[in-house]
Amino acid sequence: LLGTAFIILLRPTFLGAIYNWGITAVGLQNYLGLDSLTLFIMGTMTTAGNRAIMIGIALGIASTSLKVLLGIDRSYLGSSDE
C-alpha cells in the first residue's frame, strides 16, 4: 500500500521526471514508466477497493434489514422493558 502511494505521488515530481527519462533511455517506457504504472494502479487496485466497500455496505444493509424484520433491533432510546 505504501509502495503504490509512493509511485502515484512520485509521478508529478522532479524525481519522477528523472525516473521517466532514465526508463525512456533504456527503452522500457511502455512497461515500467510511471504513467503506465499509475494507470494500472488506479484502474486495477482501486476497482478492487471499491468492490470491497460495496460488498461491505450490502452486507450491512442486509443484516440491518433482517434485524428489523425479525424484531431483534433494539431502540436507541431504550424501552420500558428494562
Q: How would you describe the overall organization of this protein?
A:
This protein is mainly alpha-helical. The protein has 4 helices and no strands. The longest helix is centred in the middle third of the chain and has 37 residues. The radius of gyration is 24 Å and the shape is rod-shaped. The mean pLDDT is 75.
DSSP helix count? 4
Q: Helix coverage percent of residues?
A: over 70%
Provide the residue-averaged pLDDT: 75
Low-confidence stretches: none
Shape field: rod-shaped
Distance between the termini: 47 Å
Whole-number total of structural domains: 1
Radius of gyration: 24 Å
Number of strands: 0
- Note the beta-strand portion: under 5%
Structural category is mainly alpha
Brief rundown of the structure:
With 82 residues, this protein is mainly alpha-helical. The chain has four helices and no strands.
